[in-house]
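User: Can you recover a sequence for this backbone? Please restate the input before giving your answer.

Assistant: Of course. Working from this structure:
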């Protein structure tokens, strides 16, 4: 297929994977009826802020001034979703302190702009949302009692950044020590790699294709810090092992299927489609479930911030 390079543009999923992941995580958490969520590896708050924004509304449209278009911010929050997530507590952990501070600022901004929205419209609130947020500078892989006090732990696009030793530690720490009722894990699907379009130029190739830094494989990854990327079969094997070892069940899903990827390829240069293109995902998701977990609250020396937001919302 011959095309003018000037006419080529980078292909993105529609909707973008990051936004689809936000909505997928929200949908799972709402289905599970959780009241407290810990976002492990929260970064600047892309998922964390989205969940908080869903907790700060009573239903209907989100406040129009909540956060600008995600493409205009480094850690944007999509506000097109109108499904409320009734949380009483939300936590975030990250090793990178500047990112954690951005997450803190994002939560404060969401709360302030939600309140301002009602003030500007002179709307009498029908009720309030009372939610406690906690941010920790640290790692999920170090034993901290506070991390055990959540109904659900979300680990979105994190495990692929773990080296071999920390990946082995992940299971015992999360599923045995913290033992939440629900764990949601999202990670890239390496099986999807052949279906991505080739980079439009050398600059894009250097920015989007990275050789396995461990040298264990000849695979090319999507991010320079990825230590691995599971194929669909590898992810299933890993998740089944976790579930069997620690007494969880696991259900699989994902976002970013072939119909949502507007490829530039023609039939002649495209790889053969997978057997089930509608359920073959670029991001694979495992939802682990444990029934009847009970927790007692405690505090940790790694605690960074604890803020209680009481946000007025419409009926």
């Amino acid at each position: 297929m011959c095309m003018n390079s000037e006419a080529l543009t980078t292909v993105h999923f529609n909707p973008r994977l990051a936004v689809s992941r936000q909505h997928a995580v929200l949908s799972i958490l709402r289905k599970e009826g959780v009241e407290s969520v810990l976002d492990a590896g929260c970064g600047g708050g892309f998922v964390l802020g989205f969940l908080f924004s869903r907790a700060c509304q009573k239903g209907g449209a989100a406040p129009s001034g909540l956060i600008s278009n995600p493409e205009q911010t480094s850690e944007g929050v999509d506000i097109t979703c109108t499904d409320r997530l009734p949380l009483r507590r939300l936590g975030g952990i990250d090793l990178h302190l500047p990112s954690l501070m951005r997450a803190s600022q994002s939560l404060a901004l969401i709360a302030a702009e939600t309140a301002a929205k009602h003030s500007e419209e002179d709307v009498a609130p029908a009720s309030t949302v009372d939610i406690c947020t906690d941010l920790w500078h640290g790692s999920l892989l170090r034993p901290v009692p506070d991390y055990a006090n959540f109904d659900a732990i979300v680990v979105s696009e994190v495990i692929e950044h773990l080296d071999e030793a920390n990946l082995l530690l992940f299971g015992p720490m999360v599923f045995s020590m913290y033992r939440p009722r629900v764990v949601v894990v999202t990670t890239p699907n390496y099986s999807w790699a052949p279906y991505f379009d080739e980079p439009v130029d050398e600059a894009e190739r250097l920015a989007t294709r990275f050789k396995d830094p461990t040298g264990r494989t000849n695979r090319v990854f999507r991010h320079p810090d990825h230590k691995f990327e599971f194929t669909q079969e590898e992810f299933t094997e890993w998740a089944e092992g976790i579930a069997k070892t620690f007494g969880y069940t696991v259900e699989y899903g994902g976002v970013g299927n072939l119909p949502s990827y507007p490829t530039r390829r023609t039939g002649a240069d495209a790889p053969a489609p997978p057997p089930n293109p509608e359920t073959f995902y670029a991001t694979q998701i495992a939802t682990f479930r444990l029934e009847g977990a009970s927790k007692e609250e405690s505090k940790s020396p790694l605690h960074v911030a604890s803020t209680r937001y009481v946000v007025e919302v419409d009926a």
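That completes the design. Helices lie at 17-32, 46-55, 97-121, 164-178, 202-208, 232-246.
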